[in-house]
């Protein structure tokens, strides 16, 4: 580098910065400096250049890099025109660490060093000294400085006194990685720092001379990761002088080197030296060297002469009085030791001596080691512990190979023909040195190299033997690794000379070692052939594989566990493979929760012979001692999907269970079945059982099945073929879901019955025998028509059913429909059943009868009756209910009754109803023809809708009887909806049937329901026939028949009253083809949500009126008459009145149609009328049309139509008319302008005509538990009430836009609770928000305001929209009410504030002298006092007189002053009117 180039590099120095790229220097200097500057440049800040021209010197502070924050001097020496020398001198601060400059040293011992006056020097002149030839990459960085002895570094402080030690040395950047490795690994520092030398240390046993230490950073390469790491080390070294003549045979001086290496300051100082250079010594010499008088040798061994002392180790603590904590040394001898005669002799005995606390109290222990020869070349290195008398060791390395047969022959003396001829690679031996109480023994763990073929198909690797010799003899046990499916099974074996046994290996992989079962079977098939993997197991993985191999039998037997996937659940499966039998078997191990723990049933697996068939079956026989599990839990342990079909709570005594799996490659189905240890015997049935006991009648077996998918008959048969004897599946197709299956036995007749629970109704496939096909009904039952007779008993059908209701136990029932006929009387039995519990295996069978029918039909008497059992639901629980009826009919009268009963937890619930027809009492104008009556207990009466009254059994039976085709059972089912159980509800019903002149026939039923609420219902039917039938005149066709259904309801609690009437379909006029329709209804609501609303209608409402949901709906008043085949005429009309409008209208239509000619007439009118202000609107429509259709080159229609539409309004009267002539329409206006807005009324007129009288606009009422007012009290006097339950209610006919309490001077706004405060006055044309009405509440007591003593709750209700909706002209789409208007408040007294506690000093209540000295106090009755004459006035006078007495007043004041010193008591203002009830008092108070 030239001076000019140098100046260019130093151009930034005047500004205080220097950035020197190393590459700008000459190559040798760049290669040298670049190893210590990883960034390839040296950057300085705060630079100052010295004035001297040569060398050029720049001093600054190192910026980020190896010399950061250190003072750096950069010196360039010029020789001629060349920079001949570059120096970098670094002086870091006192807190600097070597790791700051060399990061790989972080965390090492070198990182803990701190220095004073440290100087790091890079000098290119050192390159020439580095090597020959010079090597810049090997040139070091020179270091010098004083090491500060800091806390934790006491070791060097003790060995070398002083607070700092001068250190010097060097750092070289190096790499240990091979040069061909790319990318190159980063350079790491190699550090060598040397401290003081020539110190001395007296250890008592020895004196150390030339003591010195050094600090080193030693790079290492991790060949796995190719990363460097640097290990720090403190090395301490010294010499031990040994003078000639100090030991026997020692003729010259020796200096033994001793040293120690420490990786941290906290390590123990352990010095090691080698004394073998002293030559042969005696035990006495060695003992004296370590400060002992003698050196004991254990086990009575004589080491002889010529002992060599080897390595000596000393643990040194320089701070202790005895610096040597302990020492160890090794002694080499040529002696032999016979441990076990004839078996174990150790040669070339060595002694390892450990001396703790050398000196007079030294503790000495000795280990004996030696060599044990086996076979031709085998040698074991063994060590004996004199304390435990145990010997241990292993095979010596680098000796010729030892064969296992040599070992066997040495220890047994037998020929080793059955032992493999393999090489021993490891022999870990142990022995016990015999004593008087402990016999000798020898054991060995032997590892061999090679493969052992134990059978023709099986070889083992990792072979080893366990050797044991004791007084009973010598044994060898083999161990090896058996490779199956790529996984090693560790097996062990003992030897039996029996030819059928020999070596018998057994072992397992243990849990967690997984083997794909396909790989395992592929291995077995290659070795043995004839073994195939069942298809369902193809994807399984086996763990805990156990193997047994017998070299005598040549048999391999495997067992293993796998998690077999079944329906998303892994089930424990144990697999067993026998290569001798070429068989595969297994078990499924389930875990089923049962009461008190977990039940673990085991199912035997059965695989298909065809290895490609994806099916298997499993069977289980239930033992008497096994618990009875819940069926859902049992099925769920295998298939959650199948378990989802099983109802809850089924627990049946099992005989056996089965599981089957069937797959077609895309879908897998699962089937679980149990056979129940129960039979259903028809011979035990009531009534008919005696006729069935002579033969076998019932079902056996009884099975429950759960399947995830339907199985066709062929697949079900294939699965059944896998099952062992005694197990079976139903023949035919198997349905998905839960199925109850049984075999029906009726003497010689047998038939399978299956009930798919929850399945759809339908007909099952007919059996192959030609028997009738079973029929499945929708109530989980399957019926089979049998039509068989047994004497007077005839069985029409037999059924199997599953019965389960919410809250009730599930049952399996055998059903029977049968009848018994004797002498014309037929007793029919419906639902005769025998059932077993599906939830309680210990319960007895139950017998049931769903209904009994009675029939007797012999002129003139007809008797019919029925009693049925059903289930009725109440509050989510189903209960058995009984209902029935009986009717007796003759040509002159009929009588009947019906009723129902159910027992609820709260008591019985029942109703009864009876009717009598055939009476003739009273004049023809009003003749009594029938009576009816009934009652209900814990039953609610629900009146039918108006269109259901005609068919309501309580009405229909009292008139004409049930409709055709309706049975008594049908009527009872209908009544279940109208008369449901309801605890606490009751009703009474009374009905009369009357007739007037044979023209009017009417029935009226009055029902009063009470209990939770009172309701009065009136139901009726009235029929008018004109002319009246005349039996003497022969049949006459009536010209009119009017039949009217009537319904009236009053519900005071709901504030609801409604009256309805409606023509039935039997009504006509002139001819039966002229049907009459229509209805009438009136409803009003006086409390509740719709209070103030009403509706009156005949025939319905305006077509555009949106009928509120709570309004009654009735059909149009009208008629429809098909006069002839061609001509028909119809008409309809309506009238309705609501709070908003009055509406009316009608329509008439006539139509003639005869083939191609069609003519029609249509006219309609609709009115809408409102009041205050009075306004009406009307629409009128009339049209006449004729059309004719003919065919001429196609079909054509000629039509003519004339019509008019008229719109009217008023006042003032006006309207428009549109006349449609088909081809032109003319529009005409007349009267006032179209739809003129009505004139609004004034507020005074609105108030006077549409609001209540002024004295009734506002209202005030009181509610309380007790309430008393004086008979002569003023109207505004509310009397005396209980404040705890007091509620004062204010009401207003005018809604409030706001509310306050108090007078105007002190008013406080009241909350409206979210109520609507914006409303209008429609008749006055005031829009919502334009009306202000303040609801003001003022409460005073004795003239003072007390409003703040009450809480205020707004009362909200709906008011007519016509009044308060704000619309002047009503619309049909207007709502009936304006909801949530504030119409009043409820006032409730606030609870009084808690009284202030007053404390009375105890001494004030203590008497000065004892009042009683006796232990027993006798209470004498007080003297009798005369009582004043009774009566409130007399009592009040007596009390006032006593209170005014000065003596009484003084006494009361004294008592009050003693108890309440600060209280002011004024009895002068006492008034008896404040008493709720004036008490009776004595003559003097």
Automatic annotation (TrEMBL):
DUF6603 domain residues: 786-1265
Pfam families in the record: DUF6603
Protein name: DUF6603 domain-containing protein
């Amino acid at each position: 580098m030239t001076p000019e180039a140098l100046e260019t590099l130093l151009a930034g120095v005047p500004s205080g910065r220097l950035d020197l790229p190393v590459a700008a220097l000459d190559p040798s200097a760049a290669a040298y400096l670049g190893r210590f500057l990883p960034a390839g440049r040296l950057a300085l800040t705060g630079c100052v250049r010295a004035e001297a021209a040569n060398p050029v010197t720049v001093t600054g502070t190192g910026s980020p890099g190896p010399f950061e924050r250190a003072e750096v001097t950069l010196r360039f020496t010029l020789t001629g025109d060349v920079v001949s020398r570059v120096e970098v001198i670094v002086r870091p601060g006192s807190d600097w660490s070597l790791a700051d400059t060399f990061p790989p040293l972080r965390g090492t011992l070198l990182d803990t060093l701190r220095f004073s006056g440290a100087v790091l020097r890079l000098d290119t002149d050192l390159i020439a000294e580095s090597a020959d030839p010079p090597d810049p990459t090997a040139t070091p960085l020179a270091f010098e400085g004083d090491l500060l002895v800091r806390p934790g570094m006491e070791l060097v402080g003790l060995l070398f006194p002083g607070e700092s030690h001068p250190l010097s040395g060097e750092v070289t950047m190096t790499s240990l990685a091979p040069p061909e490795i790319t990318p190159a690994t980063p350079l790491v520092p190699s550090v060598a720092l040397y401290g003081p030398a020539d110190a001395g240390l007296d250890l008592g046993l020895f004196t150390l001379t030339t003591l010195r230490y050094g600090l080193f950073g030693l790079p290492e390469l991790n060949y796995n990761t190719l990363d460097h790491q640097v290990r720090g080390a403190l090395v301490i070294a010294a010499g031990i002088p040994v003078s000639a003549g100090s030991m026997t045979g020692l003729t010259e001086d020796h200096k033994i080197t001793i040293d120690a290496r420490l990786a941290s300051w906290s390590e123990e100082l352990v010095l090691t030296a080698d004394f073998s250079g002293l030559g042969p010594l005696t035990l006495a010499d060695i003992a004296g060297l370590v400060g002992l008088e003698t050196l004991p040798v254990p086990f009575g061994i004589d080491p002889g002469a010529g002992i060599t002392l080897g390595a000596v180790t000393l643990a040194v603590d320089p701070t202790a009085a005895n610096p040597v904590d302990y020492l160890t040394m090794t002694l080499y001898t040529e002696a032999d030791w016979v441990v076990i005669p004839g078996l174990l002799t150790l040669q070339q005995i060595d002694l390892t001596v450990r001396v703790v606390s050398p000196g007079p109290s030294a503790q000495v222990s000795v280990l004996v080691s030696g060599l044990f020869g086996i076979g031709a070349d085998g040698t074991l290195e063994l060590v004996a512990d004199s304390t435990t008398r145990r010997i241990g060791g292993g095979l010596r390395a680098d000796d010729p190979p030892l064969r296992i047969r040599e070992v066997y022959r040495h220890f047994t003396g037998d020929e080793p023909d059955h032992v493999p001829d393999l090489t021993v690679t490891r022999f870990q031996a142990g022995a016990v040195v015999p004593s008087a109480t402990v016999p000798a023994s020898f054991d060995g763990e032997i590892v061999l190299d090679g493969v052992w073929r134990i059978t023709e198909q099986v070889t083992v690797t990792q072979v080893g033997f366990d050797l044991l010799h004791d007084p009973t003899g010598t044994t060898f046990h083999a161990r090896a690794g058996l490779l199956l499916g790529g996984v090693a099974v560790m097996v062990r074996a003992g030897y039996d000379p029996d030819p059928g046994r020999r070596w018998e290996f057994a072992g397992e992989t243990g849990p967690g070692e997984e083997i794909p079962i396909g790989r395992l079977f592929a291995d077995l098939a290659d070795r043995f052939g004839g073994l195939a993997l069942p298809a369902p197991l193809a994807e399984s993985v086996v763990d805990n594989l156990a193997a047994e191999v017998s070299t005598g039998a040549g048999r391999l037997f495997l067992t293993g566990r796998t998690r077999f996937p079944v329906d998303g659940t892994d089930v424990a499966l144990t697999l067993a493979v026998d290569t001798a039998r070429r068989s595969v078997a297994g078990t499924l191990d389930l875990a089923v929760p049962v009461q008190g723990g977990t039940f673990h049933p085991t199912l035997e697996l059965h695989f298909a012979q065809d290895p490609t068939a994806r099916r298997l079956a499993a069977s289980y026989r239930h033992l008497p001692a096994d618990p009875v599990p819940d069926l859902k839990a049992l099925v769920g342990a295998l298939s959650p999907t199948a378990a989802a079909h099983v109802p809850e709570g089924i627990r049946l005594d099992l005989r056996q269970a089965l599981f089957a799996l069937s797959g077609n490659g895309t879908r897998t189905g699962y089937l679980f079945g149990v056979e129940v240890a129960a039979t259903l015997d028809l011979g035990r049935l009531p009534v008919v059982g005696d006729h069935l006991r002579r033969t076998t009648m019932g079902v056996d077996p009884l099975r429950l099945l759960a399947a995830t998918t339907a199985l066709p008959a062929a697949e079900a048969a294939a699965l059944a073929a896998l099952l062992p004897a005694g197990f079976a599946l139903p023949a035919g197709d198997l349905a998905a879901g839960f199925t109850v299956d049984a075999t029906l036995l009726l003497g010689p007749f047998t038939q399978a019955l299956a009930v798919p629970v929850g399945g759809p109704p339908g007909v099952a496939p007919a059996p192959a025998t030609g028997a009738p096909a079973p029929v499945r009904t929708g109530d989980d039952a399957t019926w089979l028509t049998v039509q068989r007779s047994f004497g007077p008993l005839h069985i029409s059908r037999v059924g199997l059913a599953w019965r389960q209701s919410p809250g009730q136990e599930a049952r399996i029932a055998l059903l029977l429909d049968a009848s018994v006929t004797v002498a014309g009387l037929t007793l029919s039995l419906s639902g005769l059943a025998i059932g077993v519990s599906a939830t309680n295996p210990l319960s007895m069978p139950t017998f049931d009868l769903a209904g009994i029918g009675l029939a007797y039909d012999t002129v003139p008497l007809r008797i019919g009756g029925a009693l049925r059992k059903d289930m009725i639901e109440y509050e989510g629980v189903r209960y058995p209910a009984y209902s029935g009826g009986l009717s007796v009919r003759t040509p002159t009268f009929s009588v009947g009754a019906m009723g129902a009963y159910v027992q609820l937890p709260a008591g019985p619930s029942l109703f009864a109803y009876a009717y009598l027809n055939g009476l003739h009492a009273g004049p023809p104008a009003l003749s009594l023809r029938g009576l009816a009556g009934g009652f209900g207990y814990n039953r609610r009466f629900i009146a039918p809708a108006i269109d259901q009254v005609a068919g309501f059994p309580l009405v229909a039976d009292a008139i004409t009887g049930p409709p055709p085709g309706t049975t008594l059972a049908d009527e009872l089912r209908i009544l279940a909806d109208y008369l449901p159980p309801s605890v606490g509800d009751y009703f009474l019903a009374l009905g009369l049937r009357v007739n007037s002149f044979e023209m009017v026939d009417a029935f009226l039923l009055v029902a009063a329901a009470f209990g939770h609420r009172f309701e009065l219902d009136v139901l009726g039917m009235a029929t008018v026939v004109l002319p009246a039938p005349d039996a003497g005149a022969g049949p006459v066709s009536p010209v009119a028949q009017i039949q009217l259904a009537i319904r009236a309801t009053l519900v005071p609690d709901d504030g609801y009253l409604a009256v309805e009437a409606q023509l039935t379909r039997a009504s006509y006029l002139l001819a039966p083809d002229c049907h009459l329709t229509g209805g009438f209804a009136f409803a009003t609501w006086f409390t509740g949500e719709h209070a103030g609303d009403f509706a009156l209608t005949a025939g319905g409402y305006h077509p555009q009126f949106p009928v509120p949901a709570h309004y009654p709906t009735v059909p149009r008043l009208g008629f429809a008459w098909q006069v002839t085949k061609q001509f028909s005429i119809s008409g309809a009309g309506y009238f309705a009145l609501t709070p908003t409008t009055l509406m009316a209208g009608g329509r008439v239509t006539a139509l003639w149609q005869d083939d191609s000619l069609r003519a029609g007439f249509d006219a309609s009118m609709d009115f809408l009328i409102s009041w205050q202000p009075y306004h009406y609107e009307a629409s009128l429509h009339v049209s006449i049309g004729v059309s004719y259709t003919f065919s001429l080159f196609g079909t054509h229609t000629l039509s003519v139509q004339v019509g008019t539409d008229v719109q009217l309004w008023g006042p003032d009267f006006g309207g428009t008319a549109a006349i449609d002539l088909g081809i032109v329409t003319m529009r005409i206006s007349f009267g006032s302008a179209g739809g003129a807005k009505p004139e609004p009324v004034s507020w005074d007129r609105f108030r006077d005509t549409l609001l209540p009288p002024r004295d009734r606009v506002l209202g005030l009422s009181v509610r309380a538990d007790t309430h008393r007012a004086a008979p002569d009290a003023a109207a505004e006097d509310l009397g005396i009430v209980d404040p705890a339950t007091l509620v004062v209610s204010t009401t207003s006919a005018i809604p409030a836009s706001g509310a306050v309490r108090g007078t105007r001077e002190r008013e406080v706004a009241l909350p409206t609770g979210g109520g609507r405060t914006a409303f209008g006055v429609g008749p006055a044309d005031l829009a919502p928000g334009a009306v202000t009405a303040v609801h003001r509440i003022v409460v005073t007591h004795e003239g003072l305001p007390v409003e703040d003593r009450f809480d205020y709750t707004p009362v909200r209700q709906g008011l007519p929209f016509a009044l308060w909706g704000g619309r002047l002209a009503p619309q049909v789409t207007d709502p009936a009410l304006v909801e949530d208007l504030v119409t009043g408040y409820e006032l409730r007294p606030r609870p009084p504030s808690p009284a202030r506690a007053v404390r009375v000093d105890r001494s004030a209540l203590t008497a000065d002298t004892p009042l009683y000295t006796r232990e027993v106090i006798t209470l004498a009755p007080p003297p009798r006092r005369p009582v004043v004459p009774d009566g409130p006035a007399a009592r009040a006078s007596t009390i006032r007189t006593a209170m005014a007495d000065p003596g009484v007043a003084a006494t009361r004041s004294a008592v009050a002053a003693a108890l309440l010193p600060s209280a002011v008591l004024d009895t002068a203002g006492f008034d008896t009117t404040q008493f709720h009830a004036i008490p009776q008092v004595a003559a003097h108070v």
